């Protein structure tokens, strides 16, 4: 996740010294490879002149796998041996892959696989494998076949071996997914110079091309995922100020809606085979892409038994179906802006990335949100690969004079501590630039408390139970002190690689305890998406839950203190006043643990009003008591 790279200005090396480095966009749907030639980034084409390599691999029992267009064409014919969208399973367990509802044959036991291809992360227990005619394969192996194809394309185009590659990953990829991507590249014989976040790559391509300055948004709608990032570009510094997105939202989801409509429209669709359903999805996608230019089209395909299916679809119908999905992307964008403390009008330009941003209604909706037409002058399919190529060129040492820039990245989820009542105290908010360190002081709540347990959590919710627990540790050996006297400073530190360290130190004695945790380890990007989505849905509910708990605590304390005061100074009230206080007290006591925030709040305020005069008289009495029997000179 981490990206902190400071480059020094340098001279442009002579052409014969140039080291060949490439940028690779390893996409869910399509992959590309690009390089920098004569200071200009360009995408490398295959022997037929095509830039996009579909991220599809078809496996056989007796021959080498085929990758790309030919594999994609076999999707319906040989669905279980033709793997598409394998990126969705990178770094995932079998359970997670099964839960995704995908139709592949998943196996958990380490299978036959390709001998000698086990690498750390790839063959770890629990890692998903896909059963194919070629054996049981991990997503890492499938991805490596795609990468190997891009590598040979690049070597053919450049005429030499590569020194290394920058490979892009979604900003939301966790450690396991990033590690899996690295492993795939290693398997493909590539030296990984760096993993680079896709939106950052897009901003680099756009920003360097246009000498852009100011705040830019990158809106990336691909085949299977949606990502939005807000970046600040100043004098060659690319600072990511906020990221957001949805790892389960992309062109595929639009296709699923179209497919749904077709199955509802055609009699007998319940009996369609796996082949038929896959053919329908392929047809839905083709129809949707045509609707970017045409006003109407046919979703047409053939069933396995030869029957032709043709269902008309207009652009208007598609746009109505797509509206809720597009709205979800806009919500993510608004949220990222809020996190960055920015208004849509602060954004100088919106860079469109991903094939699905060719959809006119998507462009319109994004244009309306930001009050300006989005930037589409760079090919949305290529922009990520071009940015990766620029970064690769720099890391390989081919930097030209004046080409120095800096990347800063952020943490995707907030980090905090559990406090009393199961509430979360946020220490480092989501989207803080890394590396980052923050400290906060806590104290003991019991007299003579000798230890304090520290529970580190990650997530956006107010309640610990709704966040992910990262680590627990204890600070022991706190010397006996009265409650509230100890000063325990807890420091959170996230380094440039995204690793979190937590230290707790009692300030007066110097007693210390610490723990290192990997914040995103084992957190799938679905987890992240779900946690973020929940926090949006639940923000109101959470705020109410917090207020209710606070009110309940206040009600309890007030009831206790009024009771104690009545026992001591009850004589200060006449019968009428006493009845009034008793009534308010009984009311507060009966509702104080209830779930109705308004009721608790009303009872608390009624009780404090009813006891206002009583409190004032008690104050008078205690002052008189304190003064009585003293001489005047003692008081001066
Ligand atoms: P990924 O990043 O997931 O590899 P891409 O950026 O390659 O994805 O985008 C693939 C998606 O773009 C697919 O869903 C595809 O249908 C969609 N797409 C490609 N061309 C068009 C088009 N002309 N109109 C609408 N969608 C398109
Ligand atoms: Mg992409």
UniProtKB/TrEMBL annotation:
Region (Disordered): 105-124
Keywords (A to Z) from UniProt: ATP-binding, Chaperone, Nucleotide-binding
GO molecular function list: ATP binding; ATP hydrolysis activity; ATP-dependent protein folding chaperone; unfolded protein binding
Pfam short name (any one): HSP70
The UniProt record lists the keyword Chaperone: yes
HAMAP family on file: HscA
Job of this protein: Chaperone involved in the maturation of iron-sulfur cluster-containing proteins. Has a low intrinsic ATPase activity which is markedly stimulated by HscB.
UniProt protein name: Chaperone protein HscA homolog
Organism: Bordetella genomosp. 8
Lineage summary: Bacteria, Pseudomonadati, Pseudomonadota, Betaproteobacteria, Burkholderiales
